[in-house]
Design goal:
The complex is a heterodimer.
Chain A lengths: L1 H26 L15 H10 L6 H13 L14 H36 L4 H15 L2 H15 L13 H31 L2 H8 L4 H28 L3 H7 L5 H9 L3 H29 L1 H5 L1
Helix pairs in contact in A: 1-12, 4-5, 4-7, 4-9, 5-7, 6-7, 6-10, 7-9, 9-12, 10-11, 11-12
Chain B lengths: L3 H15 L2 H9 L10 E6 L14 H10 L4 E3 L5 E3 L2 E6 L5 E6 L13 H12 L17 H5 L10 E5 L2 E5 L7 H4 L10 H6 L16 E7 L3 E6 L13 E6 L3 H9 L5 E2 L7 H8 L3 E14 L9 H9 L3 H8 L4 E3 L24 H14 L13 E8 L2 H15 L3 E8 L1 H10 L5 E7 L6 H4 L17 H12 L3 H18 L2 E13 L3 E2 L15 E2 L2
Parallel strand pairs in B: 1-10, 1-11, 14-15, 14-16
Antiparallel strand pairs in B: 2-3, 4-5, 5-7, 6-7, 8-9, 9-10, 11-17, 12-16, 12-17, 13-17, 18-19
Classes of the chains: A mainly alpha, B alpha+beta.
């Protein structure tokens, strides 16, 4: 087991390097730089600024400089938030996204699995049909529609919840964003559980169990274990995604998470932030895929043997 | 039968784990924080400041915050008028090149230190020092030797600023420009506290470290979340300041900001979602304030290459544009039709010069445009020896810029011009503008750094390599601008600038489309908030109902 984990971690290092190198050079292909703003700078001043931020060096030298500071855990200075380093910005933003994403994930899992499970057991009942409808709705209506609607309803009309802001993570300020983050996840999990539960119940060995006269509950529990495998495989990637923050949700609710940096930094050519977000996302994807694989191995003896 | 209860337990545990923090948040201020006696202005802005170092700042948002943190020799009041700041009075030498400022004795830094003339000398030298890399240093190239210092040709000590005593400061100018006082209200012209900057090796912009002399001090800054300012008890006017706190909240999503304003979570916001303008007008009513702003929306022609090196072609295209349609229909009345290059509202300049065809009927204008194009060798459908005029409009992606370009293309179709559109992301657009390969037209917006016509008209000077996007080069225009710069008599200078603008409108290197308006949402709880052309609203003059 340990050797598998070690092997996977070792393989992650060249993967990360390739990702970092590719994004470093790709990013520089985009026209313009961090100092191209509405008011064009005096050419001499712009040249001076590029020199101060070492953007005048040949690209390969910049890459080596970046990689050497990255190895020391330094993401460099932000070119837009010029009073902060990228490390300082991420140290504030990452916990916010982790907290929101973590809550959304746990709720989505804890509600999605039972909903899918029940829907699979009684596919023709009213609850299953209702669940199907809700799942469909949550999957097709995007967050940028759901979020403003919830703000209008709970914030402006009912005055029950604040419309936006973080306020140091006040509970009432988390309810709407977590709901919006949670809905599509919940729908996906419920959908997957329902489908794979139905498949698992139709397997020949389930028929055998039924023929032996085992109680329905025991059979269903066995089926659930098998049905969870695709859900967990899906969660590996989804976790990495949701924990690194959502640009849409954070912008609409005005939350200081990681998602805010994805698009703005790329548009503003804030190279160190772009690199930082790429590396954080890559780390998360690699890490959570590994965890998902380990969980799968633990649940499924066939995988363990491999 | 279903393991639901087992799964609900961890869910509840998670919910509970998040609960305790709610009590902490109440004093940080939610919509209901009016219960406390503190007078707090929650001020929504469409973004975060990039830097609170006055020498690294460039944006409007930064200028709003730096106005609160620092006080220069002069300040702008709630109506955007110049008032004495740290300087209580000043005198100007007869040749207009030497300014002598008498500073207040009671001006204090937020740590209690006195503000002295040396603090200004230190700040201005740091601004021009090439090692600082101040992007806006060139605004103050009006000071003697400033450009040479900034380009590393002279040491910072040779800059035209001297502390005669602790409270007497002298500034020497390169040319006798009359707008120096207006420039001194700009964010680049603030004093700095030398000791705290040198002690932190320049890394001074953090709460608890930064020492400022404005009416407010920095208490907290969390990017993308909020920036908190509290009243500076050492400020000489502290007793008269009506606010205890100002909280700047960055909100890029205009629609979400509108909802937060309507629910009372923020007291003001300096923009509106233009695509929902009818709804905004209806729901916000009196709280929605539209006022003229010192900003101009133009299309720049590439005057270096054919066909737009021909003034007849440029004028023809300008004639064919229905500016009222753009301002009213496309921008929902949040813009003013633009018939001048300098926006109206600059006191020292008076009403600007205007395009002469303003009062012609649309039909007369169209005929005139066709005739000019024919003269220049262009005609519809490429009949006979005439070619079809082709134009390409470049703009940065935004719904309104796109709609504007489409409408303009349609107007030009009527006079037989074929127009194509190129939209790029905002940084690519500005990079294109800087590199300036041959193009035909590109969208350009300009907001005043200080209220003077020169700050607009210099965009067409041939020597202005960085900002003269059109590549316009006209010796008569340059001569007028040069004469105006050296003219110490205000009336004569204004007349020269008017002549220059008239020439600029005739030649048309920039096609004026619209004048910006400031769009503000302001709660009736705020008192002392006044509309003004600079759209500046210093917290010092504002109070708020609890």
């Amino acid at each position: 087991m340990m050797s598998v984990i070690l092997r996977r971690l070792m393989a992650a290092i060249p993967t990360l390097f390739v990702i970092a190198a590719l994004s470093f050079f790709l990013m520089r292909l985009a026209p313009g730089g961090p100092f191209d703003t509405e008011r064009p700078l005096d050419p001499a001043i712009a040249a001076n600024l590029r020199r101060i931020y070492k953007l005048d060096l040949p690209l390969w030298q910049q890459f080596l400089l970046y990689m050497s500071s990255l190895l020391q855990g330094d993401f460099g200075p932000s070119l837009h938030w010029r009073d902060f380093s990228v490390n300082e910005l991420f140290a504030r933003a990452l916990p916010v996204s982790l907290r929101l994403g973590g809550a959304a994930l746990v709720i989505a899992f804890c509600l999605g699995v039972p909903i899918g499970y029940r829907a699979a057991l009684a596919p023709r009942g009213f609850p299953a049909r209702l669940a199907g409808l809700i799942i469909l709705g949550a999957l097709i209506v995007p967050p940028f529609v759901v979020a403003p609607l919830l703000q209008l309803l709970f914030g402006l009309d009912l005055h029950l919840l604040p419309i936006g802001g973080w306020e140091d993570g006040a509970f009432s300020h988390q309810i709407l964003p977590v709901t919006v983050l949670c809905l599509p996840l919940l729908a996906a999990i419920a959908n997957l559980t329902r489908a794979s539960m139905r498949d698992a119940l139709a397997e020949p060995h389930m028929r055998t169990l039924r023929a032996f006269g085992l109680p329905a509950r025991v059979i269903e529990t066995h089926a659930l274990r098998a049905a969870l495998l695709p859900v967990i495989a899906y969660l590996g990637l989804a976790t990495a995604n949701v924990l690194t923050g959502s640009m849409v949700v954070e912008t609409i609710f005005g939350l200081p998470g990681m998602g805010r940096y994805f698009v703005d930094a790329a548009l503003g050519r804030d190279y160190p932030i772009v690199m930082g977000t790429v590396i954080i996302v890559a780390l998360m994807v690699i890490g959570f895929n590994l965890i998902a694989d380990l969980l799968l191995a633990w649940l499924d003896p066939r995988i363990r043997r491999e | 039968m279903v393991p639901v209860p087992n799964l609900l337990a961890p869910l509840l545990a998670i919910l509970l784990a998040f609960a305790p923090s709610s009590s902490k948040a109440d004093d940080a201020g939610t919509a209901s924080a009016g219960l406390s006696a503190e007078r707090i202005w929650r001020r929504g802005e469409p973004g975060d400041p990039g830097s609170l170092d006055p020498h690294k700042a460039t944006t409007v948002i930064e200028s709003h915050i730096l106005t609160e943190l620092y006080e220069g020799l002069v300040i702008l009041d709630a109506r955007g008028r110049i008032q004495p700041g740290v300087a209580k009075s000043w005198s100007i030498s007869e040749d207009g090149r030497l300014y002598r400022f008498q500073l207040r004795e009671d001006a204090r830094w937020s740590n209690g230190d006195p503000v002295t003339a040396q603090d200004f000398v230190y700040a201005f030298r740091r601004l021009m020092d090439p090692a600082t890399g101040a992007p806006y240093a060139n605004i103050l190239y009006t000071l003697k030797n400033a450009e040479k210092v900034n380009k590393g040709l002279l040491p910072p000590e040779s800059l035209g600023i001297t502390a005669i005593t602790d409270h007497v400061l002298e500034i020497t100018l390169e040319e006798p420009v009359p707008y120096l006082i207006a420039q001194l209200a700009h964010l680049t012209a603030k004093p700095l506290h030398r000791h705290s900057i040198e002690a932190t090796h320049g890394d001074f912009v953090h709460p608890g470290r930064i020492v400022t002399n404005g009416p407010f001090m920095l208490a907290d800054f969390n990017p993308n979340d909020r920036l908190v300012l509290v009243k500076n008890p050492h400020h000489y006017d502290a007793a008269a300041i009506g606010l205890d706190k100002e909280i700047f909240i960055p909100l890029e999503d205009r629609s979400a900001a509108l909802r937060r304003f309507l629910s009372g979570e923020i007291d003001s916001y300096s923009d509106v979602p233009v695509d929902q303008i009818a709804f905004v007008r209806k729901i916000a009513g009196e709280r929605f304030k539209l006022s003229p702003n010192l900003g101009t929306y133009v299309y720049a022609f590439d005057t270096r290459h054919p066909p737009f090196d021909d003034a007849r072609v440029r004028t023809a295209l300008s004639l064919a544009i229905d500016r009222e349609f753009l301002a009213e229909r496309i921008w929902g009345g949040t813009m003013e039709p633009g018939y001048s290059f300098v926006p109206p509202g600059i006191e020292s300049y008076g009403p600007p010069a205007e395009l002469t065809f303003r009062n012609m009927t649309p039909f007369e204008r169209e005929d005139r445009a066709r005739a000019l194009l024919a003269e220049a060798g262009y005609g519809p459908g490429g009949q006979g020896p005439r070619k079809v005029l082709k134009a390409e409009i470049r703009f940065n992606i935004s719904e309104n810029h796109r709609a504007t370009a489409i409408a303009v293309a349609d107007m030009w179709k009527r006079i037989g011009v074929e127009t194509s559109l190129v939209a790029t992301d905002v940084t690519s657009h500005y990079a294109f503008m800087r590199e300036r390969p041959p193009y035909s037209l590109l969208r350009y917006g300009w907001f005043a750094d200080f209220p003077d016509a020169q700050n607009f008209l210099f965009l067409a000077e041939s020597g202005n390599k960085g900002l003269n996007i059109s590549g316009f080069s006209n010796s008569a225009y340059d001569a007028l601008m040069h004469d105006a710069a050296g003219e110490a008599d205000a009336t004569k200078r204004t007349a020269l600038l008017h002549q220059a603008e008239m020439l600029l409108l005739q030649e048309g290197p920039y096609l004026p489309l619209m004048i910006f308006k400031a769009k503000n949402l302001v709660s009736p709880k705020l008192h002392g908030w006044h509309e003004n052309a600079l759209d500046t609203h210093p917290g010092r003059f504002i109070s708020i109902d609890p």
